[in-house]
Amino acid sequence: MTDQFVHLHNHSEYSLLDGFSRLGDMVNRVVELGQPAIALTDHGNLHGAIEFYQLAKKAGINPIVGVEGYVADGPHDERNPAKRFPFHITVLAQNRTGYQNLLKLVTASHLEGFYYRPRMDRDLLEKYSEGLIVLSGCPSGELARYIKASDLDAARETLEWYGNVFQDRYYLELMMHEHVPGQAEVNDAIVELSKQTGLPLVVTNDSHYVRRDDHEAQDILTCIQTNSNVKDPKRLRMEATTYYLRSADEMRADWSHIPEALENTVKIAESCELELEFGRNLAMRFPTPQNRPSMEYLRELCSAGLKKRFENPSEEVQERLEYELGIIEETKFSDYFLVCWDIFNFVNERGILSAVRGSAASSLVLYCLEVTQIDPVAADLFFERFLNVERREMPDIDMDFADDRREEVIKYCIDHYGRDHVAQIVTFGTLGAKAAIRDTARALALPLELSDKLARMVPNTLNIKLKDAIAESAEMQSEIRRNRDARDLIEMAQRVEGSVRHASTHAAAVVISENPLTDYVPLQRSTSGKEGSSPTTQYSMNPVADVGLLKMDFLGLANLSILDRCVKLIAETTGEYVGVYDVPIDDEKTFRLLGEGETFGVFQLESTGMRRYVKELKPTTIDDLAAMIALYRPGPMEHIGTFIDAKHGRAEITYPHDDLRELLEPTYGVIVYQDQVMLIAQAFGGYTLGEADILRKAMGKKIPSVMDAEHEKFVTGALKKGYTKEQADVVFDLMVPFAGYGFNKAHAVSYAYIAYWTAYFKANNPTEYITAVLDSASSNPEKVGEAVQEAIRLGITVKPPSINYSQAGFTIERDSDGNDAIRFGLAAVKNVGAAAIDPIVEAREAAGLFKDIEDICRRVDSRSLNRRTLESLIRVGAFDQFGGRSNLLESVDRIIAAIQRQTRLRESGQTSMFDMLGESVPVPMVEIGVAGHDDTTDQERVIWERDLLGVELTQSPFTREMRQQPGNIVVFASDITAKISGQKRAALGQVNDIRELTTKRGEKFLSLNLTLLDGNIEMVVWPNVLERTASLWENGSFVSVTGEVRERMGRVSLSVEEAHEYQLKAQGQVESDAEAAKNEPAPVTRAGFNEASEPRPVLNDPVQSMPDDPTRHRVSEGRSVLDRPSATDHQNRTDQREAILTTESAATAETSRGEAIAGGDAVSGGGPMQVRVKETGDAADDRYRLEDIVKLFMEFPGPDAAVLEIETGNKIVRLDMPFSVQAGARLTGRLHELLGNGTVRMTTA
Fold it and tell me: Rounded distance, CA 260 to CA 255, Å?
């Protein structure tokens, strides 16, 4: 008997529901325990397989790649709710064949069998059985479930099937943990079945964490993943504390009575010999015409592109192109360049705006292929930063596309290269410091106030760890010392910090392969949930690259979408098309706008700090913009002042050595780019540019041994070139920091061009540009608010949303005075969205403007205009022309009921009769009855609009008074900055987002926002001030405050010292959109009449009865615009009918209730009135009769239902009228005169 033991059933943090083990910790623990191997079997996925394999190999233990899969009870692609709980199974890859079958098996379970869980079935297991070892599974396995159900026949059938398929590679799995009902009995039955069948046993421990004391942290993480807490007795949990990586001695102590089950763990591990290859080049081989050599085809495309790009290419350009092609050929990357050309050929043909970020912009080959739009020779960019023979890595071409068209590019790749060859790449979200605090507090059922307080103490430093946050924050240290809950919370948060929280789709990464992807990686459904989305790899970016696949970045850039929309708007408003790539790069208006710091909406240049620096710089070239973009980062930012002063002659330009003047003169003696570091290494140290690129990377990593070697090499090279050691040391020391934080010049230049393009259109076409910015920001109310304020500042009118004049997105309208204005888009209203608005706009465009609320109810589908959408649109004024906002909100129940009723009628086909009758008899509609007086307050308007639009559009008296404040009163949030920290300021605004907090001594204070004209400022009201001002602080209240500006860890706030309620000087009536609508051009119908003035039927409201007024029930006598029979054919019949409809005959007036009954009609006021007519075969005549019946119904409103039955052929079509009538002798008599006796029937209720 061997003393060894191998864990074959283990879960890592990639078992996203309940796994806590980190891969590195797992491997290290197995090494400590002296165990020779370990398996990874996460729930349904292979996310961690490559990282696990590499870590285990490096540690000298045997990695066994596997999965705990889910087996469907039936076909894996069947979605049967009765069988939604699949069986569990443990599957291990024995060798390379088994690994590739495992990739396909897991992929199929995700792409074909996903139903609550990724499921495989027996057919798939048999198809991919070669090279796989199968264990029967945990207590949720097929065998265990049949045993617990006392279905031994099914259990034996299961053993027989798996034994036949997997033969000596099928094992019966045993495990034991406390608090698992029936597990001992299941184990006894499995041992007995093993004796009966001869199938071998194996012991596993189903580990979910590494050490026993990880039990509590695993429980917390499970609570976080399942959105529960430790006080919930029904939560998913593992009550036993034995689900860890136990030692061989611990396992023997429990299983010594079945020694063969222990020995089989080692036997299985020894049979698993998986060898994976890394570092291969599995890039897509481009399918060239006639299968020509890819390099030959690339040269041909570049030759054609050179002629297109350069009318008369210089010798320098031709030599540069040949040089680049030579390096591409030597490094064997020609297929990669052709794939990029193919993608951008599609992009350019479709007019999708694009750009290339990173060092790829330095390639002349890519410029000739029209992948990039920047001439690298003119921009002084060198190729070796992108690709060189010394660094034979796959070149990285990061592609930017207009973000609203990125999916088109991915779809093209899928269609062109095949769905099996293209996928997006998974990425994993982890628990950062603040998220760990908040999520752990929720799992521990601790108060939200505590977690919020501690999370706010974490410095706003990217990727900061909790231990560093504690070290930096004296406030947090104090809280932990005095508050036990805080101490326990932080301790547990540190344990779960960094754990994988969820899987998602990487924002950019796409992989393309020559062979089917499942030869190399497992796939899963896209986490986006969009129908038809490309699948996602289960491996993240680094493992995908390690196996040798080509990773490309397809990034969506909102600014390109803004430019595209702007260009289209210009074409719509002016009829002129302006190509983004063709705008002049020396436009005076553009640089004037930049020099004035007017950079809201300008790519890369709109932050407060950047605005200030750009204003000081006053750029005059795109090179200036590139340098500023490169310098505005931690590290080089300290050189911005030197750069600006040198440009304007306020500072002397110095160089570390006069021989470097030519390299540094364009940036005024400041090292701005990594490229300059490489050129210095070449000029001063004798490096080739390829070697200089390696030096640059080494300096960035700062590995001491490598740095020492490079320093020696640099000095040696400098000495050979005639420089002294002292000079070489000075230059080398100067290079080191810049190599680490310097910017890639090609990247900076690419961004500078996009920044310039956005500034150009803002300067020259401000209305179109701001409209495009608003469209792009429509899902971000805060950004929308900022853009509206910018429009107003530029003198552009922004009109409020209107159900009759707005589109889904923002649009441009021509004012009556000929000026262009921006109309707010309905889809930009919070809680609304394009899916709700598109059908409403379609209905409006199909039949004209909405006349009133009833008309909207009649024409809009209840699936579009639901309660939440309707209330939001009312609150922002989209219905102002139909009534006051508060009054409309009071009528929401009736409006929704009417919309739902009309929708049901349409779907039942019962409105088809009214469609046939045309405009003379519209579909009847209940009058909603909106009160005339609007009692909406200014405060309500402001709160609603700022919440739902991000900005106040219908200016309140308060806003007008804010705009009239003297200069010493702050009314713009942009005036409160870190630059004035420590200074006193007075401000006027509206209170919102109040949060009650407590000090270390338990005293209450407030953190809140004060809304100003262009956004919010954060304010703190400390206990001493709160004590005397408590009554002021309510959301929506208007206050004037005085306080000290404070800056802490990048956050600026106003510490309130004095506060007073602000009293409006004068109340004014707010101009509503209804008033503005008076100036709108009158809508014209097909017949040339104003639709809004057409009469309409108004009927009793079954929800709330209205006073009876006969004049409200009259309908138009006009006919519908339909083809009519000739006058000679129907004149007599028409005259007779008109007489009946317009005059009550004496006979009808004298008809009594009794006479009506004697005539064969039962008349009552309690049951539905039924009218039956028979088709005559004359379509026009039938149309007239139906029209007349409806008109008569509408002249007799009342409480009784009305039903029209039409005999057509051998069937009867029943139409329930969408209104009620006053059934009685008068209506019955009129109908008899029109249709004849025997046609009207009353049913007693």
Answer: 9
What does the domain layout of the chain look like in residue ranges? 23-212+243-271, 289-428+505-559, 432-498, 563-759, 957-1061, 1123-1242
Q: For residue 130, how far is the Cα from the chain centroid?
A: 41
Sign of the alpha-carbon torsion through 265, 266, 271, 277 = positive
pTM of the model: 0.77
Using alpha carbons, list the distances in angstroms from residue 1126 to 1123, 1134, 1140: 9, 11, 21
1191 contact partners, CB below 8 Å, separation of at least 6:
921, 1115, 1141
Specify the pLDDT at position 1245.
40
Task: Give me 153's structure tokens.
Answer: 């026949």
Helix (H, G, I), strand (E, B) or coil at 933: coil
Structure token digits, residue 1037: 């209240």
What 8-state DSSP symbol labels residue 233?
Answer: T
Task: Please give the backbone phi and psi of residue 47, each rounded to the nearest 5 degrees, phi first.
Answer: -50, -45
**48 with 12: CB under 8 angstroms?**
yes
Residue 287 gets which letter from DSSP? -
CATH architecture of 23-212+243-271: Alpha-Beta Barrel (3.20)
What number of CA atoms fall less than 13 Å from residue 961's CA on the CB side?
A: 18
Residue in this structure with the two tokens 């088994």, named with its chain if needed: 98
Of 85, 60, 68, the closest CA to residue 19 belongs to 68
CA distances in angstroms from 841 to 653, 799, 910, 1001, 1076, listed in the order given: 61, 17, 24, 57, 20
Name which of 324, 523, 254, 331 is nearest 414 in CA terms. 523
Strands (E), 215-370: 354-357
Domain 957-1061, second-level architecture? Beta Barrel (2.40)
* Integer Cα distance of 756 and 605 in angstroms: 10
Rounded to whole angstroms, the Cα distance separating 604 from 622 reads: 13
Task: Find out whether 94 and 82 touch, Cβ atoms under 8 Å.
Answer: no
User: Are the CB atoms for 570 and 578 separated by under 8 Å?
Assistant: yes
Please state whether beta strands 1211-1221 and 1169-1174 pair in parallel, antiparallel, or not at all (unpaired).
unpaired
Q: Which CATH number fits domain 432-498: 3.40.50.80, 3.10.129.10, 1.20.1250.20, 1.10.10.1600?
A: 1.10.10.1600
User: What local confidence, expressed as pLDDT, does residue 1179 receive?
Assistant: 63
Counting as low any pLDDT under 70, the low residues of the chain are: 1-2, 392, 529-532, 739-740, 908-929, 931-932, 1049-1050, 1065-1167, 1177-1181, 1183-1184, 1209-1211, 1218, 1236-1245
For the record, the structure tokens of 943 come out as 């709160």
Q: What pLDDT sits at residue 943?
A: 83
Distance (Å, whole) CA 1157 – CA 210: 90
Q: Are strands 170-174 and 201-203 parallel, antiparallel or unpaired?
A: parallel
E strand intervals along 97-163: 119-120, 132-135
Going from the C-alpha of 103 to that of each of 57, 93, 516, the distances in angstroms are 20, 10, 11
Instruction: Print the SS3 string covering 355-389.
Output: EEEHHHHHCHHHHHCCCCCCCCCCCCCCHHHCCCC
The DSSP output letter for 757 is: H
Helix and strand element counts for the chain (H, E) = 49, 27
Q: Domain 289-428+505-559 classified CATH 3.30.1900.20?
A: yes
Which residues, other chains included, contact 700 with Cβ-Cβ below 8 Å and sequence gap of 6+? 739, 740
CB–CB of 1203/1240 below 8 Å?
no
d(CA 624, CA 492): 49
pLDDT at 591: 98
